[in-house]
Amino acid sequence: MHQANPSRENIPGEDEIKDRVNLHGPSPATPSQANPNPASPSPANPNLATRDQANPSPANPNLATRDHGNNVSISRIKDQMEQRTKQAGYAVKTRAAAAAGAGVIPLPLFDMAVITAIQMDTVRALSGIYGVKFSRDAGKAAVTSLAGGIFPVGAGSFIGSAAKMIPFIGQIMGSVSISLIAGASTYALGRVFIQHFESGGTFLTFNPDLVRSHFKREYEAGLAGNGRP
Fold first, then answer.
1. CB contact burial 22-49 (16+ within 10 A = b; e otherwise)
2. Which of 54, 79, 109, 134 has a 20 to 30 Å separation from 37 between CA atoms?
């Protein structure tokens, strides 16, 4: 009787080996197999690591915050200056329109008094917008030297006002002419003081002789209709 070889019967077959592997799972990897380079572990999120390299954090976060604050402050100051310029321009145009309206007052010389008061109010309003202390004497001197110092403006206003004493045609022509002159001169006066105040000037530093050419240009612009609100 032939006896089976006990040593060969105890050797598992190929199918049995596969079943054992599937049952118990793969053998744990050695440390060298799990991470072949332990000193340089791979990042959990490679995309995050790439982004961090492309956008490194500032060396001094406080400096970056301060720069941002300065930019915001500069932008706010610029907005305030633009708003102030718009407010000043509107104040000048509305008073120029009022002066033009006063030019049709049928009473000679009284119309001139009203126009002068409106021009004084224009300078006073602009000084308040720009935070400049208003001086009535200095303002009156500036109005007289500019609006009354240029021959076409001063003489034209007086002649136009006096023409209203002539019935019908004189009143009509006088009202039209003085209305145009009053509106344009008030507009020019306001534009001159806007430039003066925006450059840091005050009533003490105002020199009419230095701004006469500017006043003439703005006066012509006012006659062309730029002074309308």
1. eeeeeeeeeeeeeeeeeeeeeeeeeeee
2. 54
Nearest to 220 by CA among 187, 179, 194: 187
As separate numbers, helices (DSSP H) first and strands (DSSP E) second, the chain gives 10, 0
Domain that holds residue 134: 83-223
CA distance 104 to 85: 30
Q: How many CB atoms lie within 10 A of CB 185?
A: 31
Name the domain count of the chain.
1
- DSSP conformation class of 167: T
Q: Give just the sign of the alpha carbon dihedral 141, 139, 190, 177.
A: negative
pLDDT digits (tens, 9 = 90+) for 110-134: 888 899 899 999 999 999 999 999 9
Q: Is residue 49 part of a domain?
A: no
Enclosing H/E stretch for 190: helix 169-198
Asked, for residue 96, whether it belongs to a domain, the answer is yes
Amino acid at 60: N
Tokens of 196: 């003066």
The reply to whether 111 falls in a domain is yes
pLDDT exceeds 70 at position 198:
yes
pTM tops 0.90, yes or no:
no
Is 114 inside a domain boundary? yes
215 and 124 Cβ atoms separated by less than 8 Å: no
